[in-house]
Structures are given as structure tokens and as C-alpha cells.
Design goal:
mainly alpha
């Protein structure tokens, strides 16, 4: 975590968080995918797994404890949280979600075909990132195909639940959506669409409605600290198979981003525009790598 001590490195990390926050608003695009593309995915999982409930207990004791020695001991324990990594990243994520909520909603409404064609190109070529990190043996290929098929059918599901926006249900939605956001390929926004809370949460974020956003955030915190430990276990013990699963998840999720599913025009009338925006996504990926090298990014895209 020492690589994020300079202002420049923190700015780069915040920019990656901004992109993650913006991506999480788009159904079909995952913040986890952006983390993987930008080179911080495994670092992110490791950093989150280092936070425990004991840190909350220490924070409580620092605020309310009167003994100097006990306070200093708890402050030292709190400092084991990698704040150099989290603070700029979370600042970027929250800024991206709040600032881009209204803009992305308008873009998806007015230019859905172009938007999805762009992200299809971006994520299609990003498949090489986890694919290069896995062994290419029979068991990895089987895992890849199984997860690709599962996600292909899941992202083809359009039915949504009818909900009453109860705080307990918003808590549940936050917990489930954050698990999807962590995984490259599974969109937390898409999960919210299925659960019937996407538009409601987008409006709440745009208007900063604390009573709606708070239970959702509490659900996010609960879900992320539970799920990330499972993911870290698989990354540390079964790295190649995990990368194969992530590759399959990303590949299967491309169904949701297929641009021709988001237009009423025929393929023959729109294929050229689709190709142009597809190539724009590919170009973005290439430019991200070059800019990261130019800026001396501590964790550049692979």
C-alpha cells in the first residue's frame, strides 16, 4: 500500500475510482471490470479484506475511551487500515456516482445504442486481462465456459420485481448489488434493475436523499465485507481458476452490452456506427495504458 503516498499517485487512484463509480451506474458495466482494466483489482480485494469489525470497535473506543494508553493502542490498530489506498479511491467512486448519475441516465435514454457499442468494445478487448492471468488447461477452460453460459442467460433476463422501496429491502439490494459490482462482468446496476430499484436509487443519488441512500449504503458495507473475504480466498488459493471464472463472467455479460439489442433499427442500417463506437472503446483501452505509463502509475493497466 506504500505506493500511494504521493499526491500524483493518489490523484491517479481517485481518477480510477471516478471511472468505477460512473461505470457502476450503467446496467451491464461493472466497477469491478474497471478495477481490473485499470490494474488495481487484486489490490482492491486485498485492501478490503484487511478491514475487520475490530476496527469499528477501536474507533468507538478512541471516541469514548478516556485512558491515553488505551486510546493510542486503538489508534495504532485503526492505522492498519490502508487509508492511503481507500480514501482517494472512495472519493473518486462516490464523486463518479453522484456527478454522473444524471448525465448517464440522460445518455442512456438518448444514445443507448452508441453507449452500449462503446462499452462492448471496451470490455470485449479487456477479456485479455484475466485470460492472460489464467492457465490454459482443460479445467480452466471448462470453468470459463460454465460461467460464460451462466452469465449469458442471466443477462438475458429482463423481468423486474415490483417493490415498495422499504428500507430493509434497500439494505438487501445494496448487499447484493455490491457483490455484483466487485465481480468484473456482473453489473450492480443490472442487478438493481432486476430487483426493481435502479431508477429509484438513481433518483435518490441525484437528489442526495439520505433516508433512501443510507440503508442502501449499510447494505453495501455488509455485503462487501462478507463477500470479499470469499473472493480473496479463491484468488490466493485458486488464482488461475478464479481468473478463468472472471473471464467467463465478463464474456457472458457481453450479451447485456450487445448494441443491437438497444435500437429499433436494423443491423444493416447501424453496423457502421456500432463498429465506430466499438473501436472507440478499444482505443480508450489502449490510451489508458499509454497515459498510465506516462504518468508513472503505480499499478498500470496490464
Amino acid at each position: 500500500m506504500k505506493q500511494y503516498k504521493t499526491y500524483k499517485s493518489k490523484f491517479i487512484l481517485a481518477a480510477k475510482g471516478l471511472a468505477m463509480g460512473a461505470a457502476d451506474i450503467i446496467p451491464g458495466v461493472s466497477g469491478g471490470t474497471v478495477a481490473l482494466i485499470s490494474g488495481i483489482y487484486e489490490h482492491l480485494i486485498s485492501a478490503i479484506s484487511r478491514i475487520h469489525h475490530s476496527h469499528l470497535k477501536s474507533l468507538f473506543l478512541v471516541i469514548f475511551s478516556k485512558g491515553k494508553e488505551k486510546r493510542e493502542k486503538n489508534i495504532s490498530h485503526i492505522k492498519t487500515v490502508p487509508f492511503n489506498f481507500f480514501l482517494p479511491l472512495l472519493t473518486g467512486v462516490l464523486t463518479g456516482m453522484v456527478l454522473m448519475a444524471g448525465l448517464i441516465k440522460k445518455i442512456l435514454k438518448d444514445y443507448p445504442f452508441e453507449t452500449y457499442a462503446y462499452f462492448f468494445g471496451l470490455i470485449f478487448f479487456s477479456l485479455t486481462i484475466p485470460y492472460k492471468k489464467m492457465h490454459h488447461h482443460a479445467k480452466e477452460i471448462v470453468v470459463l465456459l460454465v460461467f460464460a453460459v451462466l452469465l449469458f442467460f442471466l443477462t438475458g433476463h429482463d423481468a423486474t420485481l415490483e417493490t415498495a422501496h422499504h428500507p430493509a429491502y434497500l439494505f438487501f439490494c445494496g448487499a447484493v448489488a455490491i457483490c455484483a459490482m466487485i465481480l468484473p462482468g456482473i453489473s450492480g446496476a443490472f442487478i438493481l434493475l432486476l430487483l426493481g430499484e435502479y431508477d429509484y436509487m438513481l433518483s435518490a443519488l441525484k437528489s442526495a436523499d439520505v433516508m433512501v441512500v443510507l440503508p442502501f449504503i449499510l447494505g453495501i458495507l455488509t455485503g462487501i465485507f462478507s463477500f470479499v473475504r470469499v473472493l480473496k480466498y479463491f484468488l490466493s488459493r485458486h488464482h488461475s481458476l478464479t481468473m478463468a471464472a472472471l473471464t467467463g463472467i465478463m464474456a457472458g455479460s457481453l450479451r447485456k452490452l450487445w448494441p443491437f439489442s438497444h435500437t429499433t433499427q436494423s443491423v444493416s442500417d447501424t453496423w457502421l456506427w456500432a463498429l465506430l463506437f466499438f473501436l472507440a472503446g478499444v482505443f480508450t483501452l489502449a490510451m489508458l495504458e499509454k497515459i498510465s505509463v506516462w504518468l508513472d502509475d503505480p499499478e498500470p493497466p496490464v
